[in-house]
Amino acid sequence: MRGTSRASLDAAEGRFEPVLGAAGAKASVLGEQLFALVDALDHSGSLRRTLADPSIPAAPKGAVVAQLLTGAEPAVVEAAQGLVASRWSEDRDLADAVEHLAFHALLASANARGELDRVEDELFRLTRALVGQREVRQTLFDDKIPGDARASLVDRILADRTDPATAAIARRAASAPRGRRYVATLGHIADLIAERRSRQVATVTSAAPLTTAQRDRLASILERAYGRAVQINEVNDSQVLGGLRIQVGPNVVDSTVLARLADARRRVAS
Length: 270
Prior knowledge:
This is ATP synthase subunit delta. This protein has 270 residues and is an alpha+beta fold. The protein has helices spanning 3-23, 27-43, 45-52, 58-68, 74-84, 91-112, 116-130, 134-141, 147-158, 164-175, 182-196, 212-226, 257-269; strands spanning 199-206, 229-236, 245-248, 251-254. Helix 9 runs antiparallel to helix 10. The protein is globular.
């Protein structure tokens, strides 16, 4: 999301954050109600285009939102009305913005309960557990399988051993992927957690565990590069012969021996 849409989302986040703070642990209710609006926007292109149309005054669009969200918390209706009154570069950006606030609501709920660290760790562990499970990952993204069935698969994987926010996020990622692969959505949530803490998250893959000195040095280098504190999530993979693969958001720096060998093969082949 860029330009006009980015500015509109930033403004919406600024308005919504105090609401989440006031809601405390009950912010998760706001998130679930916002997800219902995301579903409505995704299922109706005409609705989405109407609510994102800058030529239509804010008042009638706000009335439509209020009708769609009948029974929802006033704070949710107000947040949604603020979003449809804003300008968006593309109509899909409106739905993305609603989803963005919804996920933040779930994370704010966990934070209010003092469980955000746990949610972050559980989502990271789930991501790692799926690395070698290609068929499971494909099932969680297969649009031929009903969303409820994909969410039920997540329930079986988690087996009621996670925080409620973790379960809600993991289920939502499966039931409504919105064009994203399952693991990609979990990575997106990790970025949102980092955003709540004003820090980046770097996933570092190496053959052997990093020493404390190595982690500290790498964190310092990444902090200078990104201009903010960076949390390192470490993944150890015995198939990596040496070097590191570092992913921060969409950016990947791969210096592993296998990557260099693969690059060399490509150069020889060309």
